[in-house]
Amino acid sequence: MDHFLYKDGVLHAEDVPVAEIAAEVGTPFYVYSRATLTRHFRLFDEALDGMEHLVCYAMKANSNQAVLAVMAKLGAGVDVVSGGEYARAKAAGFPGERIVFSGVGKTVAEMEAALTGGIRQFNVESEPELARLSGVATRLGLTAPVTIRVNPDVDAKTHEKIATGKSENKFGIPISRARTVYAEAAALPGIEVVGIDVHIGSQLTDLAPFEAAYVKVAELTETLRADGHDIRRLDLGGGLGIPYERSNSAPPLPVEYGDVVRRTVGHLGCEIEIEPGRLIAGNAGLLVSEVIYVKSGEDREFLILDAAMNDLIRPAMYGAYHEIVPVIEAPAGAETTTYDIVGPVCESGDTFTKGRAMPSLAAGDLVAFRSAGAYGAVMSSEYNTRPLIPEVLVDGHQFAVIRARPTFDDIINRDTIPHWLEDPA
Ligand SMILES: *Cc1c(COP(=O)(O)O)cnc(C)c1O
């Protein structure tokens, strides 16, 4: 459920008409709903009720500082995957003890920043990383709390680019090598093993792969405890999917996911961490765009929008589906047209969808892409020198720009011309 509803035929973000935001900030733009972000965090928090737990928002889904501030105020933890995200977490007010650090390629500089700034745990993904972290922590006279990410060789049954739990993926250590690697970790100076980490992929629409992975984690917990390790924390990753296409899919609810967690690892007495990103931010955001032209091709109609693949790359990158709706609701029985919906970028890949039946639209009309709050703005670029589009946060009747659109001069002035290229005076 989200807070983007039609009221009297006009699409609203909470209590604000979307067209009012468009008039103030210009199109295209992203708009997020604080109430929806809050609701989604609480659903996960309540789903783990009765178990000691921390919901660590995976900020790579949407790392705007205002979104992070919403999460920090709710008492969330946060999952970061780079030094930049770690800096964002600190700037948003997350204390070190609520920040977990994931990722296959942590650098020495990133380890130093997290160790000195405070960290709940590093989710270590390889033996070389373990050795390097031991070296950095020892040099600083600090101890690095770690979980080791195991790859359970489970098929997440999701898009190949976001599946991470099969043995052919680059993530984690093979679960079959876990005992060896935990023994190595226990012997290393500057390392304190606190638990196990797993994350099998994103946009999972079936609970069975989670269940299969968590059963393996439960078995491993018993084995490692028998080996003498103090396994007291389980980080179960993120990945629960959202209904991009509402008419034909109903992914499991957080409460059902929570039941899987309880059933598989609830008896172990471990503190549970989960790292949802998409489910918290995805349906909390719209991308709003204006129709520039309706163009008739040989055998089809093109709807040419002012948003493009550089603003929302998911359709081009993953063949992803987004619901696209008119901001002014079409009356019942209104005429529909089948469109190819495209942006202005000079690539055929800049196509949001093909053959989509929609209420007929005209130049100047506004449309909204639903489910655009996660992996939207964060993956955008300035390709074709199209400025990064503004982000707006709505809270009830109020809204604010939370990232402004840069001017052309802002963009141009980021580049510098070497003095030896300049014309002699
Ligand atoms: C991407 C990622 C997440 C979040 O995944 P969602 O599908 O957005 O919930 C969580 N943990 C790790 C390690 C990730 O890489």
From TrEMBL:
Positions of modified residues (N6-(pyridoxal phosphate)lysine): 60
Family: Belongs to the Orn/Lys/Arg decarboxylase class-II family. LysA subfamily.
HAMAP family, per database record: LysA (MF_02120)
One Pfam family named in its UniProt record: Orn_DAP_Arg_deC
Amino-acid positions noted as binding substrate in the UniProt annotation, renumbered to this chain: 278, 314, 318, 347, 375
Oxidoreductase in keyword set: no
Residue span, Orn/DAP/Arg decarboxylase 2 C-terminal domain: 29-373
Subunit structure, as described in the record: Homodimer.
Positions annotated to bind pyridoxal 5'-phosphate: 239, 275-278, 375
Molecular functions (GO terms): diaminopimelate decarboxylase activity; pyridoxal phosphate binding
PANTHER family found in the cross-reference section: DIAMINOPIMELATE DECARBOXYLASE, GROUP IV DECARBOXYLASE
This protein's record includes keyword DNA damage: no
Biochemical pathway: Amino-acid biosynthesis; L-lysine biosynthesis via DAP pathway; L-lysine from DL-2,6-diaminopimelate: step 1/1
Lineage: Bacteria, Pseudomonadati, Pseudomonadota, Alphaproteobacteria, Rhodobacterales
Active site (record annotation): 346
Organism: Kangsaoukella pontilimi
InterPro entries given in the database record: Ala_racemase/Decarboxylase_C (IPR009006), DAP_deCOOHase_LysA (IPR002986), De-COase2_C (IPR022643), De-COase2_CS (IPR022657), De-COase2_N (IPR022644), De-COase2_pyr-phos_BS (IPR022653), Orn/DAP/Arg_de-COase (IPR000183), PLP-binding_barrel (IPR029066)
Record protein name field: Diaminopimelate decarboxylase
Function: Specifically catalyzes the decarboxylation of meso-diaminopimelate (meso-DAP) to L-lysine.
